[in-house]
Amino acid sequence: MNDDRLIIFDTTLRDGEQSPGASMTKEEKIRIARALERMHVDVIEAGFPVASTGDFDAVRAVARSIKDSTVCGLSRALEKDIDRAGEALKEANSARIHTFIATSPIHMKMKLRMEPDQVVEQAVRAVKRARQYTDNIEFSAEDAGRSELDFLCRIVEQVIDAGATTINIPDTVGYNVPQQFGETIRNLIERVPNSDKAVFSVHCHNDLGLAVANSLSAVLNGARQVECTINGLGERAGNASLEEVVMTVKTRKDIFSCNVDHLDTREIVPTSKLVAGITGFAVQPNKAIVGANAFAHESGIHQDGVLKSRETYEIMSAEDVGWSANRMVLGKHSGRNAFRSRLKELGVEFASEDEVNDAFARFKDLADKKHEIFDEDLQALVTETGISAENEHIDLVAMRVCSETGETPHADVTLNVDGHEQQAEADGGGPVDAAFRAIEKVINSGAELLLYSVNNITSGTDAQGEVTVRMEKDGRIVNGQGADTDIVIASAKAYINALNKIVSPVEREHPQAADV
Ligand SMILES: CC(=O)SCCNC(=O)CCNC(=O)[C@H](O)C(C)(C)COP(=O)(O)OP(=O)(O)OC[C@H]1O[C@@H](n2cnc3c(N)ncnc32)[C@H](O)[C@@H]1OP(=O)(O)O
Ligand SMILES: CC(C)C(=O)C(=O)O
Ligand SMILES: [Mg+2]
């Protein structure tokens, strides 16, 4: 049965912003809020208005620009916080005030320094105050995950009586495990006499990596709102990730009795990219749903399965979450079927199985050497016949490159050509250009450079740089690769690697080079 809507409450702009280093400007919050609205997220928590004038302005600006989602502001259980939130949300089409107070013994005693009775009283007062601004009031029992159930039941009953319409049960420190957390939710709903007057919500943190699992367990036990963030951003290890919660409920309709059918899940990937770009928090490639590899297949057996029937290795479609398509990544684990299929897409047909096998063998050799294989590498691979880099009759012996502000870059190279050392110098538009020109003075290949690209194989300032050059001579196209921590040397190596394939020993003339 799938008869119930799961309310998606996004807190990227509030709890997400609590990730150290993820502060957002007003304009950035508006851009993210608009993306969330396009996704049809139900509630957008835009910030904590009392925190600063900047956050107040941001919440007010989001409230003014969002029409379809409810805009929410957070406040402690204090009059001044609630009044500030009420003021910031005044112009919202649909506003919610979210007020919270901690309910766990450790938080009440050590942090708030309050007796439980005082906490209940303050929570009730806060909810009543918030009702002066809107009927849409959420109350959170902070650190509910470590609170006593009897006390939780008591405070929840009283805040519902005071006018709270959503009761949020946070696992603030990510301490809970799925079965236990689900039971807490079920017990609360069963034991609180007026529980039918409010929506039960959960807000889970990822300290043990269980935020999504705990949220979903709560949903299976009656919660009908999940608080989550794009890319799982949030305080410390983050919050439950919106994309994982939403796509689990959508993909496992056989398990969940509620649905997220109102959401446009195709907005997930664009929104994830927007949040990553704004915060500078890159998404790890293997992150579920939004990671670059989430719909990529590299192994031959998987690629073969997906080519025959996509569902063999995909439980949802890449397009459904906003990727343009799934990806077949050709690498050293790939098999002939994927190789042949990609080349077919590139317009290359093989005349015989022998040709396929020959090209495939060269592809595997390349994949052993090269970090990532691009379509252009494949195109070059099928046009490279016979001559391989094993015929290395040209070698880089030494290179000196001068590049100074205000000076023309200059390169001095020494090559070993068929056992003879030859040296040449040249100026260039940049150090790489100067190096290529000096090499050409020795080899005089007459080949045209079609492409030059740099990738880093490792990261950091001492990264290995991998350079690919593509060259054409007399209609034959070859690729050359070179790797080095010095990018100019990597470039020279790549150029020489290509020359070794395109220039045969007899062809060479070296009129401008000096014998060393
Ligand atoms: C689990 C969560 O994510 S809760 C939200 C966390 N987010 C934030 O804290 C971000 C925004 N926070 C801020 O900008 C500031 O902390 C402010 C503006 C809210 C408060 O700043 P300050 O007045 O300087 O207080 P400070 O942050 O040092 O201490 C918090 C105070 O609030 C009290 N407090 C904490 N939670 C609550 C609550 N829910 N209701 C009432 N009082 C509370 C604390 O006991 C402490 O009181 P004390 O000063 O009497 O000891
Ligand atoms: C304010 C509340 C909902 C919170 O962020 C938490 O308890 O983690
Ligand atoms: Mg939180």
Topology:
Blueprint: E1 4-5, E2 7-10, H1 26-38, E3 43-47, H2 53-65, E4 70-76, H3 79-88, E5 95-102, H4 105-112, H5 116-130, E6 137-142, H6 149-162, E7 166-171, H7 178-191, E8 199-204, H8 211-220, E9 225-228, H9 242-251, E10 258-259, H10 268-279, E11 296-297, H11 300-308, E12 327-328, H12 336-345, H13 353-369, H14 375-383, E13 394-402, E14 410-417, E15 420-427, H15 431-443, E16 448-456, E17 465-473, E18 476-484, H16 487-502, E19 514-515
Parallel strand pairs: 1-10, 2-3, 2-9, 3-4, 4-5, 5-6, 6-7, 7-8, 8-9, 11-12
Antiparallel strand pairs: 13-14, 14-15, 15-19, 16-17, 17-18
Bound molecules: acetyl coenzyme *A, 3-methyl-2-oxobutanoic acid (KIV) and magnesium ion.
Question: Can you give a write-up of this model?
Answer:
It is built from 16 helices and 19 strands. With about 525 residues, the protein is α/β, with parallel strands linked by helices. It has three domains: about 5-280, Aldolase class I (TIM Barrel, Alpha-Beta Barrel); about 295-385, Recoverin, domain 1; about 395-515, 2-Layer Sandwich (Double Stranded RNA Binding Domain). Strands 2-3-4-5-6-7-8-9 form an eight-stranded parallel β-barrel, surrounded by nine helices. Helix 6 links the parallel strand 6 (about 135-140) and strand 7. Helix 1 (about 25-40) packs parallel to helix 2 (about 55-65), helix 2 packs across helix 3 and helix 5 runs parallel beside helix 6. The radius of gyration is 31 Å and the shape is elongated. Residues about 385-390 have low confidence and may be disordered.
